[in-house]
Amino acid sequence: MPSWQNFQPFIVTGLALGGVYALSGVGLVVLYQATGVVYLALGAVGAMGALITYSLISGGMAHWLAWLVCLAFSGAVTLAYGMIFGPLLAKRDPLVKATATLGLLLVLFGAMDLLWTTSGGAVRSLTFPTDGHGFSLGHVTINWTQVIGLGVGVAITAGTAAFLRFTKLGTAMRALANDREITATLGVPVRRVEAAAWLGCGILAGIAGLLLADMVALDATTLTFLVISSLAAALIARLRSVTLTFGAALLVGLVQNMLVPIPALTSYSNMAPFVLAAVALLLLSRRRVIGLSREEA
Hints:
By secondary structure, this protein is an all-alpha fold. It contains twelve helices and two strands; from the N terminus they run ααααββαααααααα. Helix 2 runs antiparallel to helix 3.
């Protein structure tokens, strides 16, 4: 068993990644609340945005401008998908909605494999200027990119919670989550509210893609399927609460990374999000069944 000192760097990494998982999870929750769609293509959208940013920077474009292009691409693709297919999916079953976004994931993944082929052993990297700067905390060196990853997660979660509670648009999104048809009859512009949710989720996908490309790897497969960790956090929160999603994302990031230094469990670290989500759903379902049984009694 590794010593506590060996775990410390992985705790820092886990918190940083947890912050990024949180902002992706918040996007998933808000979009689900507004439209009923579980956006499985979020990781692929962020991955393609990060690869576009890498190509633009390699071509000489200023970093900040390339980052904005990534956000614009992610937001535009997600918004376009939502406006074209959202109305068609509105009254379909949840399984159909999720499968439809899985189709977008496969299309984007195929496009990335075609445009950014890995043949020849090409290695790509996307780094932030903050990578080379940081500070020491005990025996651990923390760079500012890790701080940004956690800080952005905190800011997005707090900002989204305040937005949903105190703004008219946020109130409309929460109303859609309760009853779409009644909300429409009250005069709420449903399509406009849904468009805002799709656009916001797309922009968050772009931010997550940039941060994860730096923290993990600029690889289409890796970035595309990192959405699983964010989805696990959202499922633990039952796709309802952005605050619970944030806490769950930190838990997923910590558990996943703290398994890495344990030799016997290293190869199972990627399974941590699945296991945590499954356990949480089973416990929550059991609690709900017990509650219903007491009410009937």
